[in-house]
Amino acid sequence: MKKLLLLINPNAGKGGFRNKLGEVLMNFHRAGFSTTVAFTDKHGDAPRIAAEAAGRYDRIVCVGGDGTLGETVSGLMSVDKRPSLGYIPMGTTNDCAATLGLSHDPALASRTAAAGKLVPLDVGHFNEGRYFTYIAAYGAFTEVSYETPQDQKNALGKFAYFLDGVSRLPNLTHRWAKVEYDGGVLEDDFIFGAVTNSRSVAGLIHLKDQVGVSLSDGLFEAILIRTPESALQLGAIVSDILSNKFESEYVTLLRSRKVRFTFRDPVNWTLDGEDGGSHTQVVCENIHAAVDVVVNRES
């Protein structure tokens, strides 16, 4: 019988997973898995547990938000032998779940995790020794993901991001940056920069209609937003993004295997919604087809 580790973050989402645990375990049993359950107690547990378990299990299925998924992937990236990875989304925005086409119902998601098809997933390498699954970003709104209290995220969902983000608008900080990518260089003042491998960012930015966006093509999508000169221009930027317009005077979308950012002063980054530290230089490099993830067979 195949061996599966179910890695649960009990603090993610609203805790609705508890009522479905029996059904989830039954779905794994029916798919031919012998399941072991492990829980995370604090930040940093998921990568450690995943790394330690990687050589002993055929599949690891993590339960939590995108941060839990990112931590689990980080753990797998520290070892050579990587089991396949399933995901049962229980977070606030669940961008990765939207990108992978996974259900927010734990029972349905567990069926996919147990018997779906395997697809390769690119993983981002961030500076020295850190990784991200779907986004590395700085600037406007990025602090919200890791500074908003978890109970507020659970209660308000995406609205928590709107509330906190709007409160920051009068104090938007713009940063000069030199951005080097495959085949070119940009230098300008930006209020936001992101390197993504996702079709959804914070539930607000959607790249699903952009031609050529793939999770396993060895390329990132980099989104850069230049500093607006007025509130009216800022409104136009927001309108463009919500309308999926990523080529304008203020918004640029690039595709590149490697992206390097250079700043004059340290800039705070977020990785998959978690604190990524403060840096004057950031290098994001795409590790092609690093992990096999389980998705719906119809996807």
Describe the structure.
The chain is α+β, with helices and mostly antiparallel strands. The protein has 2 domains: 2-122 and 291-295, Probable inorganic polyphosphate/atp-NAD kinase, domain 1 (Rossmann fold), CATH 3.40.50.10330; 132-289, Tumour Suppressor Smad4, CATH 2.60.200. The protein has 9 helices and 15 strands. It has helices spanning 21-30, 45-53, 66-77, 95-100, 106-115, 142-147, 150-156, 158-168, 231-242; strands at 2-8, 33-39, 59-64, 84-89, 117-126, 130-132, 135-139, 175-181, 184-196, 200-201, 205-206, 220-226, 251-256, 258-271, 274-295. Strands 5, 6, 7, 8, 9, 12, 13, 14 and 15 form a 9-stranded antiparallel β-sheet that branches. A 4-stranded parallel β-sheet has the order 2-1-3-4, with helices on both faces. Strand 1, helix 1 (21-30) and strand 2 form a beta-alpha-beta unit. Helix 1 (21-30) runs parallel beside helix 5.
